[in-house]
UniProtKB/TrEMBL annotation:
Domain AB hydrolase-1: 75-305
Chain residue ranges for the region called Disordered: 28-53
Signal peptide residues on this chain, from the entry's feature table: 1-19
Family matches, as SUPFAM superfamilies: alpha/beta-Hydrolases
Record keywords, A-Z: Hydrolase, Signal
Presence of keyword Signal: yes
Organism, as annotated: Labrys okinawensis
Name used for this protein in its record: Alpha/beta hydrolase
Top-level taxon in the UniProt lineage: Bacteria
Pfam families per the UniProt record, alphabetical: Abhydrolase_1
PROSITE patterns: TAT
InterPro entries: AB_hydrolase_1, AB_hydrolase_fold, AB_hydrolase_sf, TAT_signal
An example Gene Ontology molecular-function term: hydrolase activity
GO cellular component: membrane
Length: 322
């Protein structure tokens, strides 16, 4: 058995205890006392961070956090499939990004956000778009940079499709899924698309562990793997089932039509999304730049965070200037 797989399965028995210890379970239980449509006090003491809850157009409640000077240039982070807002911990602690207003949230079906049980809640692109719009409003963002990782890139595209790009200063697509096509995704990604929606709990659990391992090229610490396994296990099964049935599998025309700048970030060792996916957007969009990370897999912002922070800060500064 693969060492990473063995670690994941061995940690599964401690999921509940770890969730309580890490505060993940407690954050969900205490949600009702927070403001639901605006930024409210919360977050870790001394972090300068505030938590908020807001409701999307269909009533789905979304959990988010905001950090930094409200007058500073803004960056909104959108995480990937089966992940959470915690994916961006390294960016929220990065000195290179300290001069920005940083916002992150849990996508519907993930983390502390509501988890509709129907696949229809995830197959309709307008619902993802409305979630982004709700977060922008709740966090009082004026002209943010959108950073979309993996599924988050698709979500950013659904926002552009419905709301246009006039309020978006720039987009950073990180190993993003912009078109659901077998020639742009790996066979492994295709396998996970099937096993992750299995009604067999054992198969789905094993697929979750394997999927998480496939997101990284560099080995992670035991603690990192355990935390991520907890988060992945919180994801509603219907997310995967609904997303693969989306009515807008191709968002390339949307990104092509976007008038703002695009930074494309891609790990060369990505085992899920082929580099060709990013190269196609680069060819379609004149004001775009592709940055390939030679020591990263599907998660360059996590595997090479210092470089990622520098490049994002430079991109955000240039995109929001004036």
């Amino acid at each position: 058995m693969d060492p990473s797989r063995r670690l994941f399965l061995g940690a599964a028995a401690a999921l509940t205890a770890f969730a309580v210890e890490s505060g993940l379970a407690g954050s969900a239980a205490g949600a009702t006392g927070k403001k639901r449509s605006d930024v409210g006090k919360g977050g870790k003491p001394g972090s300068g961070r505030e938590s908020f809850f807001t409701r999307s157009a269909d009533g789905t409640q979304l959990a988010g956090e905001v950090q930094g000077d409200p007058a500073a240039p803004e960056i909104l982070f959108i995480h990937g499939l089966r992940q959470s807002r915690l994916s961006w911990d390294k960016q929220f602690a990065d000195p290179a990004l300290a001069g920005f207003r940083l916002v992150r949230f849990d996508l519907r079906g993930h983390g502390d956000s509501d988890k509709p049980a129907s696949p229809d809640a995830y197959s309709d692109p307008d619902r993802w778009a409305d979630d982004v719009a709700a977060v922008i409003t709740a966090a009082k963002l004026r002209h943010p940079i959108l950073v979309g990782w993996s599924l988050g890139g698709h979500v950013a595209g659904t926002y552009l499709r419905k709301y246009g790009g006039s309020r978006i200063a720039g987009i950073n697509l990180v190993d993003a899924v912009t078109k659901l096509s077998p020639d742009l995704l790996t066979p492994l990604a295709g396998t996970f698309a099937k096993t992750a929606i299995s009604h067999d709990l054992g198969e789905r659990t094993a697929a979750t562990a394997d999927f998480l391992a496939a997101c990284f090229h560099k080995p992670l610490t035991d603690v990192e793997l355990q935390r991520m396994l907890v988060v992945n296990g919180m994801t509603e099964r219907a997310v995967n089932e609904g997303f693969v049935k989306t009515s807008t599998p191709d968002l390339e025309p949307v990104f092509q039509a976007y008038s703002g700048p695009i930074l494309l970030t891609h790990g060369i060792h990505d085992r899920l999304v082929r580099l060709t996916m990013s190269e196609r957007i680069k060819a379609l969009h004149a004001d775009s730049r592709l940055s390939v990370y030679t020591d990263s897999g599907h998660s360059p912002f996590y595997e090479e965070p210092e470089r990622f922070g520098r490049e994002l800060a430079a991109f955000a500064t240039a995109s929001t200037r004036g």
